[in-house]
Amino acid sequence: MERILFGDNQFFAVNHISDEKAMAQSIKFKDDSAIINTLDTARNAGIQTFMCTTHDRIGNICDIIREQPEKYMGYKMYPCMPYAHKYANAVTELGVTGTLKKFVPGNFIGSMFKGGVAFLSKDYLSIMELLIDSEMKMFKGIDTPVIFLQNVITDMLLGMKMKEVLVSFHHYIAKKYNAEAGYITMNMPALLDLLESGGVKNPIICSSINKVGFRMSGGKELYENTLKTRQFRAIAMQVLAGGAVPAKEAISYICDLPNIESILFGASSRANIQETVSLIHEFDTKKLTTKY
Amino acid sequence: MIKVGIIGIGKMGISHLAILGAHPDVEIAGVCDTSKMMLDAIEKYSPFPCFTDHRKMLDTAKPDAVIVAVPTRYHADIVAELLERNIHVFVEKPFCLNAEQAPSLIALAKERKLVNQVGYHNKFIGTFREVKRIVNSGALGDIYHFHGQSYGPVVIRAKQESWRTNPEEGGGCLMDYASHVIDLINDILAPVDKVTSSTLKSIFSKQVDDAVFAMMQLKNNVSGMLSVNWSDDTFRKMTTSLTINGTKGKIISDANEFKVFFKDKEAPAGYRSGWNIKYVTDLTEPVEYYLRGEEYSAQMDYFIKSVLGTKPNLINTFETAAQTDRAISLIRKAQS
User: Fold this and answer.
1) Does A55 lie at the interface with B, CB-CB under 8 angstroms?
2) Cys staple from B30: which of A238, B61, B82, B160, with CB 3.0 to 4.6 Å?
3) What is the reported pTM?
4) Closest Cα partner for A194 from A149, A251, A136?
């Protein structure tokens, strides 16, 4: 994985500290061209990986990228699935069964309901695989070396101790997509324990890591210790803690931590993108020179 | 260790189950639902005992406390049954389908000294807690107006069927969405006393309201407005906000951002004259396990600690939730 990954929250009205800013962003990025322009700005700053939710609009972005193979040569996308609100709203609307009927492709579900509950109870992992395939359709022909499970699902499975399901995601991604599975979580130390106990070695885990301990469940100290003592491939997100930490201080903290392979951030403006990238390079270089 | 049972594993039940499953003081004694769809998945992949009949769960698993997350229509009966068996209860909001069902449940819980809590999770959000603190401090002067709002994309097309679109089961925007805002107003300002006029609009739903607009007066004579619409897909998810005007200042707060304006030169400690902005990051206590927002974990932790006796069971009691039920019925009656 590259040192810096570009995120997509700013494109889809996800803002952890302001609903007003969230709406302003959704207006700013109402056209797909605005998203592409920002991705190009990030590419020009050296970020060749876009980590994105399987939001409907990402399908359009994939089309644009596929249409220009030369321009996007070497460009990677890391899909994060599912786009949880799509399903959460559907569950409120249609119930669990209605939601599955809507999203599971083909007539699999139709025959399954006809076949009744007994048949159903044996095939949950197949349903998961079908849902993964349905989410992955939009990325056809695009390089997706890492495929993530979104935090709401990861953490729900973690809370319900559904180890087998979490581990199956890992195996299916490897088998079907020749890619690595990644997990986004707000409970990194607990997830690592569960994955390791399920035989997943050195997993890719993306979690909130920031100087103020925001969304670091179990506490900042536990996170720092886990990074120091355990083997996994860590991606840090929410490094600015939604804006609570000034950029310089935030990046300095992250770059000083051991074992963080990549840093995920999203930004809308050229200035913010360039500032964050150069801060990461600056503190990475500083660390190298201090070390050797 | 508290033995907890869960009745109903729809959207909220699953969320509570995951949060409790990760709680260090909780043993999941049983999970119960009449629909086999989710239950079979839990039975197959989780270590939790599953039941299709809640009475069987209560008899076999003998939980100390139970989470009730079934459609609102069934709340009163199930809660009464649990209290009769001396079981502590956390029930989803709104509390009762009819306001008249509440008093006997409140009395029973009190008589048996049982912990009782209703799932109005906004009260565990740092920004709204700060609104309450500032209002109670008197720093806004005399409060003369409020505007409570909530918008989100739940029903955004015609042709959707679930219990939430069935008025007899407790569906509709007033019961499901507006109840959150009403409950916040009741708690932060004063309970709703009169509803001078209201409109319940069906936008896409056939049988229930999708939007609620009301003029309300509170027990302390403060008046204000309620606007709630769950068919507004310009919002990515449910977004609740509260504006409060006082003679010495004004607060505008949602779940993420708290803005307050103090007119006078003197402002409360930690604030200055004029505009102040604080974010949820400044105002939120971290949780041990996070799923969909700190508030969901915090409310469950509060319930469990109340059962353990280390918290006082003062937030979201049956009694306060019943005031919200009463306001809901006043809004229905005031339709113009």
Assistant:
1) no
2) B61
3) 0.93
4) A149
| Measured distance CA(B325)–CA(B98) in Å, rounded | 7
Which residues of chain B carry a pLDDT beneath 50? none
How many whole angstroms separate alpha carbon A41 and alpha carbon A276?
A: 13
Quote the CA–CA distance of B186 and B95 in Å, as a whole number.
14
Statement: residue A107 has pLDDT above 60: no
Residue A121 scores a pLDDT above 60? no
- Tokens standing for A256? 């000083």
Contacts of A92 (CB under 8 A, 6+ apart): B11, B154, B162, B164
- Tokens found for residue B184: 């916040």
Cβ neighbors of A249 (< 8 A, separation 6 or more) are A211
Q: Tokens representing B11?
A: 């959207």
Cα distance between residue A196 and residue A204, in whole Å: 12
What is the residue whose two structure tokens read 């709406």? A23
CA B133 to chain centre: 19
Please write down the HEC assignment for all residues of B35-51: CHHHHHHHHHHCCCCEE
Exposed/middle/buried for residue A56 (C-beta within 10 Å: 0-12, 13-18, 19+) = exposed
List of long-range contacts for A268-276, beta carbons under 8 Å, 24+ apart:
A268/A10, A268/A25, A268/A28, A268/A29, A268/A38, A270/A41, A273/A38, A273/A41, A273/A42, A273/A45, A273/A47, A274/A45, A275/A247, A276/A247, A276/A251
Which of A19, A29, A53, A113 to substitute to test the interface with B, most B CBs within 10 Å?
A: A19
Provide the CA A36 distance to its chain's centre, in angstroms. Answer: 19
CB of A20 within 8 A of CB of B257?
yes
Average per-residue pLDDT for chain B: 95
- Residues contacting B99, CB < 8 A, separation 6+: B322, B325, B326, B328, B329
Residues 6 or more apart from A230 whose CB is under 8 A from it?
A: A192
Closest-CA distance of chain B to residue A288, Å: 32
Report the residue from A26, A92, A244 with minimal CB separation from B282: A244
